[in-house]
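Weekly puzzle thread! Below is a chain. First person to post its structure in token form gets bragging rights.
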Amino acid sequence: MTGFDEQYTLDAFQALLAVDSTTGQYREIQEKTAEMIRDLGFAPVFTRKGGVLADLGGGGEALVITAHLDDIGLMVRHINADGTLNVCPVGGLYPFYCVTENVRIYTGDGRVYTGTVCRTPNSIHVTEEELRTQLGDFRTNVCVVIDMPVRSAEDTRALGIETGDYIGLEPRFTMSGGYIKSRFVDDKACAAVLLNVMKAVREQGLKLKRKVIAYFACYEEIGHGTAWLPEGTKDVLALDIAPTGPDQNSEEHKVSIFAKDSRFPYHSGMTNELRETAKQIGADYVMDIFTPHYGTDGDGSVLAGYDIRHAAIGPGTANSHGYERTHIDGLRNTFDLILAYITD
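Winning reply:
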């Protein structure tokens, strides 16, 4: 296949990364994605809870291709007596994957402060031996320290910070040797690939085999990103990362076709169509199964009661829900498979 624009994909990925979008914090990322869709010549349509759709054209029963815009992150649980923040995770974020990370704290009235996720005590040189070996726990020994001269809960509240405020983690994008390292490869890299698919369809005037709708969803990280689907949807193709690991086939240079996740198998007919398409175009692909802690927005659509076929594909990605890594070849193979699947 042709049409993969590496620079556009990387630029789109970084543009999405620049907008903090912890699940539930949707408005700014919704507007940014809509702007990018308009730039490609398509008309964005907003869902009430934060998603963005675009009709790519074609006729007949619709295929919805979805990638999610929401990120895992943190929320202020309460303000500690010393002015630091006790936090809780939003989505599958664990202390061992975010302690020492820089963050941004968003107040309800629109102010933004920076800070750092810290252990308590925060200096290893003055930490008793028995405390050094304790695992980090958001409720007891992990906090967010604000980059402001606060000494009390009253000082922190005077900044406008309160329970329920969102906290976004610094993505720290970098690329070397084709390897892309960043938080939120899951799933903003796949969203960038989908935007590149839209770019290729428009610029090359490609004929679609059927009606195709791009669906940039929010709330995937907590399970209900595509619990609503556009009328007439027959199939849902979820674009999401394929976690690597000792028992996995997935690899960063390849696109994975998902056979099953921790909830249930994907639709065998649609999955086989994707596999045959990958073979026909010579895509570097693998089949894989992801358990015990994995699911995609395709699952959410099925669980919502829609009579649809659902499948999922995505680039092999290491360190899922941490400082993730994939390769530009994995994004290219994902792009090629999508484009071949939807065009004549």
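Puzzle host: Confirmed. Bonus trivia for everyone else. The first strand starts at residue 44 and ends at 46.
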